[in-house]
Design brief:
Helix content is about 45%, strand content about 20%. The protein contains 8 helices and 6 strands. A 6-stranded parallel beta sheet has the order 2-3-1-4-5-6, sandwiched between helices. Helix 1 crosses helix 8.
Length: about 200
């Protein structure tokens, strides 16, 4: 990413793959676009899981906000990117094996961008999969100063992904779409509050 004037940056990051980083990054970018905010998308993941392509130079220059989808790794490039981040979003699935990678990612985010707003998104949440131990982790994350949001598992998410569209456009009444909409409103509010 060029180091010109600072663009407000939302980085979706977790060193664990398969937690929904691309889904969440897409949804945040679509929310900005729906609201008429000039947004550039950076896809560093390279797995082709997003509905967006990396913006061209003209879009990046005109953008008010960058939305960044990262790979399932914490590299030197990702650490440098995090230093420019205003809002860090860390998706996780409610599986105990995801906790250590998520907490490592949180440590990196806290070190690289201590002033950034920080949100953990429990993605594909269902009350059947969420163990008591996982909820204890979420409570611990809140005590570290992280906001914790939940996006329920829903068939509409799969349909939206297959269509290359936002879940909010596919079925805005489903619980997942409402949760995504609330998450995106929160991210937009945090970005607006950045100096």
């Amino acid at each position: 990413m060029p180091k010109r004037r600072h663009k407000k940056t939302v980085t979706v990051v977790n060193r664990k793959g398969g937690v929904g980083k691309s889904f969440i990054a897409d949804e945040i970018a679509w929310a900005f676009e729906r609201d008429g905010v000039a947004c550039a998308f950076w896809d560093f993941d390279g797995q082709g899981g997003t509905g967006h392509e990396t913006s061209d130079a003209e879009e990046r220059e005109a953008a008010e906000v960058y939305v960044v989808d990262t790979p399932g790794a914490i590299t030197r490039q990702m650490r440098d990117l995090l230093k420019q981040t205003d809002v860090a979003v860390v998706p996780v699935t409610p599986v105990g094996s995801d906790v250590s990678a998520t907490e490592y990612t949180m440590d990196v985010v806290e070190s690289a961008c201590p002033k950034a707003a920080k949100i953990v998104v429990v993605n594909a949440w269902t009350r059947f999969r969420t163990a008591r131990a996982f909820e204890e982790c979420a409570d611990a994350w809140r005590s570290r100063g992280w906001e914790v949001r939940y996006v329920p598992h829903a068939e509409a998410v799969r349909r939206a992904r297959d269509a290359g569209r936002s879940v909010c456009d596919v079925d805005r009444r489903c619980k997942a779409a409402r949760a995504v909409s609330e998450l995106c409103e929160r991210v937009e509010g945090l970005v607006s509050a950045c100096d």
